[in-house]
Design goal:
The structure holds two protein chains of two kinds. By secondary structure, chain A is an alpha/beta fold. Helices cover 14% and strands 32% of the residues of chain A. Chain A folds into four domains: 34-216, no CATH class; 220-369, Immunoglobulins (Immunoglobulin-like); 374-442, no CATH class; 468-642, no CATH class. In chain A, strands 25, 26, 27, 28, 29, 30, 31, 32, 33, 35 and 37 form an eleven-stranded mixed beta sheet that branches. In chain A, strands 7, 9, 10, 11, 13, 14 and 15 form a seven-stranded mixed beta sheet that branches. In chain A, strands 1, 2, 3, 4 and 5 form a five-stranded antiparallel beta sheet that branches. In chain A, a hairpin with a 5-residue loop joins strand 3 and strand 4 (196-201). In chain A, helix 3 (83-94) packs antiparallel against helix 5 (126-141). The longest helix of chain A is centred in the N-terminal third of the chain and has 22 residues, at 13-34. Chain B is mostly helical. Chain B has two domains: 1-37; 56-177, Serine Threonine Protein Phosphatase 5, Tetratricopeptide repeat. The longest helix of chain B is centred in the first third of the chain and has 36 residues, at 2-37. Classes of the chains: A alpha/beta, B mainly alpha. Chains A and B meet through helix 1, helix 2, strand 2 and strand 3 of A and helix 1, helix 2, helix 4, helix 6 and helix 8 of B.
Chain lengths: 659, 182
C-alpha cells in the first residue's frame, strides 16, 4: 500500500491531467454512442418509438421509408400532385420485390388508415388499396390535400433495414416511428373538417406527425338528364337547343367530370340505341364530332350519332346539381330526311366516386317534319286578312339558302305579311332578311320608312274580288249537270260560242281531259269535290278559240289528295281545300302530292293542306301547291267578254291636233 | 524492480479510471434511454401503452394552422403570436416559432417566415431549425444566408438520429447546388 501511495506521489501533475482528459474523453465517446435519440412517451398506432410497426422489433438505425426517385425526393414534387399519382406510386412500391419499397408502401397504407400495429400487415388486398384510393380522391377533389406545403411536426419515421451502427441497430425489414422534429416539404392531408390527419415528407416518404386516419370518401352519384329540346317541331336544317341537368345524390360535390351532349339521328320509325335502357356503361357516347374515344354507345344499324357539345366541371350536390347545367345552343341538325328521329342524350364520366364508367341519359327525341311552301306564279296575291308563312334556312351544297313561299308579282294584304315573299324573292335566296325579298310587297315600309310588311290599306278600301261568279250567274242557257259525279270532258262547249253554264248542288268531278277549243263552266251551289286531274290539251293551239278552259264556281271546292293537276278557274264563296281526305292529324305521309292549279283562284278561305316539297337538298324549296295564272286564262276571258277571236294587245286611235 | 512495479501500478490505475468512465457512461446512457422510451431493449411487446398525446402547444399550433387553412391567415398568425406572448417554455416556443414560420412560408409570406424561423433557431440550435432558415432564405433568393444556415444544419446534425448520414448528404448537396463550398 505504501508503495502504491508512493507511486501516486511520484506521478507528476501533468500526467494526472492527461489521465483526467483521457477519462473524460472515454466517457463522452461511450455515452454519445450508447445514448439514443430523443424518444416520445406513449405509442403511435400502438408502437413505442424505434419499434417496428409490423414486427415490433427494436432497431434504432435505418433510412428512408421509400427510396428517392428523382430530385432527391421519394415522392417527387414534379410528378406526384394528385390522389391518383400518389396512389400509383404507392401501388408500384407495394408491388416491388424490394423489401424497403414493399414494407414502406404497406406502412404508409396502414398508417393512412390509422390501423393499430401491425394493422393488416404487408398483404394488402386490391380492394383495400382501391378503398384508400377513393378516400384520397375524395379528399383531393374537396381540396383537402396540400401537395406543396412544408410540414412541421415532432414525430418522424424510418425504415429499419440498414445498420448504422447504433446501439440496438440491425437490418430489420420494418418501419418505425421515433421523435424527431421536421420542417420540410411534404404532403398534408386533412379530413373534411380541415383537421390534419396525415403528413408525409417528400424527401423520404416518411409518414410524420400523428396519424389521424384518412376518412372514408364522401360518396356521390351522378345521373344525367336531357330536360328539354327545342323546338320540337323541326324540319331539315333546323337549329335546336338542348338543355340538360345532372342529379348529384350523395354526400359530396363530384370530382371534375366530363360531360357530352350527343345528337342521335334515327331512321324513320326506328328506336334510338338505348332509348329505353340507357345507363352506366364503359363505352363513351359517340366518337364522331369530337366525342370521347372508346365507344359509340349511341350508334347502331339504324342510327348515327355525333357529339354536339362537351365540357367538364364539378357538379355540386343537388338534384339537379345547381351550378352546372350542360346546354347546347343553335345545333344545326343537318339536312335530314322527313321522318328522321332526332334525339339528344347527355352523358357524364365518371359518374360516381367509385365508378369510373360513363352514365348515359335516355335519349329525348323529336321527328323531322317539314314546312310546306306555296308558290303563286303569273299574278298577284290579294288577301283581306294576314299572310302567315314560314321560311327555312339551311345549308345546301355548302352555302346557306333561304326557302319559303312567294308570289311572282305583288303581295297585297290588309293585315300583316309575315315572311311571305313577293317578286319571286325567295327563289334562290341567300338573305334571310324579309326586306331583301319583299320588293313588291304592299306595303314594305311603314309611315316612318322602316321595314314593315303588309297593312296595305283598310278592308273597306281594299280592291274588290273579281266578279267572276256574278258574271257567269248572269248568263242565260244554264243546264243542270244531271248527276252527282261527272267527268268534265263530257260537259264541254265550244270555246268562243255562247257559254253553257252547268249547274249543280254538290258535285264530284272525277277529272277530265279538256281538248282544244272546248270549255266547261260549272256553277254549283254546294260543294264541288275534285277527285281526278283536270287537264287541258297539251297540243298546239292555233287561235284564241282553240284555248280550252274550265271554270268551277261553287260554295266549297275540295280537292282529293291524289289529284296533282287542276287546270281550272277555282271560285269558291266559302272555302277551297287543297287536300281534304285524310284521317287524323296531318303529317308528311298524307297529302304529299304536289298540286298544280292553272287558273285564277278566288275564295274566302284557302286551306293549303298539301305536304309535298320542302324536302332536303335541292328540293328544300319545292312548293306543296303552285297556283299559276297563265296567259291562257286572260286570253280566254277576253274572248268571253268581247266575242272576238282576236285579243287586241295594242290599241291606237288618231286624235285631232291640239293647238 | 521498484520502477517496474510502479509502472504496473500506474497501468492498473489508468485501466481502472478508463473502465470507470466507460461503465459510468453506459449506466447513464441506459438510464437516459429508459427515461425516453421506457423500453428500448425489445423485451416489451410495445402494445398497450398509452397512445401518444399531443402537447398543448402543438394543439394550439394545429388550431392556428386550421384557421389559416380556412382562409384567415392573419388570424392564424395572431393565434401563434398570442401563444408566444404567453409562454416562456423553450420547448413550446420552439414549436410556436417553427409552426409560425411554416404557416407563413406556406402562404408565401417569406420575410415574416424567415424572421420566425430565425427565432426558432435561436430558441433551439438544431439541424432542422437551421435547415428551415436555409430553405426560406433560398426561396427568397438569399443564397449566402441559405448556405450559411445549411452549414449550420450540418453542424447541428444529431449523429444518433437514424437519418444523420442522409441529412448530412442532403444538406451538403444543397449547399453545392447553391454554389457554396463545404
Amino acid at each position: 500500500m505504501k508503495e502504491v501511495v508512493a507511486t501516486l506521489r511520484s506521478v507528476r501533475l501533468a500526467y494526472w491531467v492527461i489521465l483526467v482528459l483521457v477519462s473524460v474523453a472515454t466517457f463522452s465517446v461511450t455515452y454519445y454512442r450508447m445514448t439514443s435519440a430523443a424518444c416520445y412517451s406513449g405509442t403511435v398506432l400502438g408502437r413505442s418509438c424505434y419499434r417496428g410497426y409490423f414486427t415490433n422489433a427494436v432497431d434504432h438505425g435505418g433510412t428512408f421509408v421509400l427510396p428517392t426517385i428523382r430530385n432527391n425526393q421519394a415522392i417527387p414534387a414534379a410528378t406526384i400532385n394528385s390522389a391518383d399519382a400518389l396512389y400509383n406510386l404507392l401501388r408500384s412500391a407495394y408491388n416491388s420485390s424490394d423489401p424497403q419499397k414493399h414494407s414502406g408502401a404497406s406502412f404508409i397504407y396502414n398508417t393512412m388508415k390509422k390501423n393499430t400495429a401491425p394493422g393488416v400487415g404487408r398483404n394488402i388486398s386490391n380492394a383495400q388499396w382501391i378503398d384508400l384510393r377513393d378516400s384520397l380522391r375524395g379528399l383531393d377533389q374537396a381540396g383537402k390535400i396540400d401537395w406543396r406545403a412544408n410540414v412541421s411536426v415532432a414525430i418522424n419515421s424510418y425504415w429499419q433495414g440498414t445498420d448504422e451502427g447504433f446501439p440496438n441497430d440491425g437490418k430489420t425489414n420494418d418501419d418505425a416511428y421515433y421523435e424527431n422534429f421536421k420542417n420540410e416539404t411534404g404532403i398534408t392531408i386533412r379530413d373534411y373538417n380541415n383537421n390534419v390527419v396525415y403528413q408525409i415528407l417528400r424527401r423520404c416518404a416518411n409518414p410524420v406527425g400523428y396519424p389521424g386516419g384518412v376518412p372514408e370518401p364522401r360518396n356521390y352519384t351522378l345521373t344525367p338528364h336531357v330536360d328539354n329540346i327545342s323546338p320540337t317541331a323541326i324540319e331539315a336544317g333546323s337549329k335546336m337547343t338542348v338543355t340538360s341537368s345532372v342529379d348529384n345524390v350523395g354526400q359530396a360535390n363530384s370530382q371534375t367530370t366530363k360531360w357530352e351532349i350527343t345528337q342521335i339521328n334515327v331512321n324513320p320509325g326506328k328506336q334510338a340505341p338505348h332509348e329505353n335502357n340507357a345507363g352506366a356503361n364503359a363505352l363513351a357516347p359517340c366518337q364522331s364530332g369530337g366525342g370521347s374515344a372508346s365507344g359509340d354507345y349511341f350508334k347502331d344499324g339504324n342510327s348515327t350519332c355525333k357529339n354536339v357539345k362537351k365540357g367538364s366541371g364539378i357538379f355540386n350536390l343537388g338534384a339537379p346539381s345547381p351550378n352546372l347545367k350542360p346546354q347546347a345552343n343553335a345545333i344545326d341538325i343537318g339536312d335530314l330526311p322527313v321522318g328522321t328521329r332526332v334525339c339528344f342524350a347527355l352523358s357524364v364520366q365518371p359518374h360516381s366516386n367509385t365508378d369510373a364508367r360513363w352514365m348515359h341519359s335516355p335519349p329525348v327525341c323529336t321527328v323531322v317534319g317539314k314546312k310546306p311552301k306555296v308558290q303563286i306564279w303569273g299574278g298577284d296575291i290579294a288577301v283581306r286578312g294576314q299572310i302567315e308563312t314560314s321560311t327555312t334556312v339551311k345549308n345546301v351544297g355548302g352555302s346557306t339558302k333561304v326557302f319559303g313561299s312567294w308570289v311572282e308579282y305583288g303581295a297585297f294584304s290588309v293585315g300583316v305579311n309575315n315572311r311571305f315573299a313577293s317578286g319571286s324573292g325567295l327563289n334562290n335566296q341567300t338573305n334571310n332578311t324579309q326586306a331583301a325579298w319583299s320588293k313588291l310587297t304592299f306595303a314594305n315600309v311603314d309611315e316612318f320608312g322602316a321595314s314593315a310588311f303588309g297593312n296595305y290599306t283598310s278592308a273597306a278600301n281594299f280592291r274588290p274580288a273579281p266578279g267572276v261568279a256574278s258574271y257567269f250567274a248572269s248568263l242565260p242557257n244554264k243546264q243542270a249537270v244531271g248527276g252527282a259525279s261527272v267527268d268534265l270532258s263530257t260537259l264541254t262547249f265550244a270555246t268562243g260560242a255562247t257559254p253553257v253554264v252547268r249547274t249543280a248542288g254538290n258535285l264530284t268531278i272525277t277529272g277530265g281531259a279538256i281538248p282544244a277549243g272546248r270549255s266547261v263552266v260549272i256553277m254549283a251551289t254546294g260543294t264541288v269535290t275534285i277527285t281526278g286531274n283536270i287537264t287541258y290539251t297539251s297540243g298546239t293551239l292555233s287561235s284564241i278559240r282553240d284555248i280550252p278552259q274550265v271554270v268551277i264556281i261553287a260554295n266549297n271546292i275540295n280537292i282529293r289528295d291524289a289529284v296533282k293537276q287542276v287546270d281550272s278557274w277555282l271560285v269558291a264563296a266559302t272555302t277551297i281545300n287543297t287536300c281534304y281526305n285524310f284521317a287524323g292529324s296531318l303529317n308528311s305521309n298524307k297529302c304529299n302530292n304536289t298540286l298544280a292549279v292553272n287558273g285564277p283562284v278566288i275564295t274566302n278561305h284557302l286551306i293549303l293542306n298539301r305536304t309535298a316539297g320542302g324536302d332536303s337538298g335541292a328540293q328544300s324549296g319545292d312548293p306543296a301547291e303552285r297556283f299559276n295564272l297563265r296567259p291562257d286564262a286572260y286570253l280566254w276571258a277576253q274572248l268571253q267578254a268581247s266575242g272576238n277571236n282576236k285579243a287586241q294587245t295594242v290599241y291606237s286611235t288618231e286624235l285631232p291636233p291640239r293647238f | 524492480m521498484i520502477q517496474k512495479r510502479r509502472i504496473i501500478i500506474l497501468g492498473i490505475i489508468v485501466v481502472i479510471v478508463v473502465g470507470a468512465s466507460i461503465a459510468t457512461a453506459i449506466i447513464l446512457s441506459q438510464q437516459q434511454n429508459k427515461s425516453s422510451s421506457g423500453d428500448t431493449n425489445g423485451t416489451s411487446q410495445g402494445n398497450g401503452v398509452t397512445p401518444i398525446q399531443k402537447k398543448p402547444s402543438e394543439k394550439t399550433a394545429d388550431a392556428a394552422e386550421k384557421t389559416a387553412f380556412e382562409g384567415d391567415v392573419q388570424g392564424g398568425v395572431k393565434q401563434l403570436d398570442d401563444a408566444i406572448e404567453n409562454t416562456s417554455d423553450k420547448s413550446d416556443l420552439y414549436i410556436y416559432y417553427s409552426r409560425k414560420a411554416t404557416l407563413l412560408l406556406n402562404n408565401n409570406m417569406l420575410a415574416e417566415a424567415l424572421d420566425a424561423a430565425k427565432k426558432a433557431y435561436d430558441v433551439r440550435n438544431s439541424s432542422d431549425s437551421a435547415a428551415l432558415v436555409g430553405q426560406i432564405a433560398r426561396q427568397q433568393g438569399n443564397t449566402a444566408l441559405a448556405i450559411e444556415y445549411y452549414k449550420k444544419a450540418i453542424e447541428h446534425i444529431d449523429t444518433t438520429d437514424p437519418f444523420s448520414d442522409e441529412d448530412t448528404t442532403y444538406y451538403q448537396d444543397t449547399i453545392k447546388e447553391l454554389g457554396g463550398t463545404l
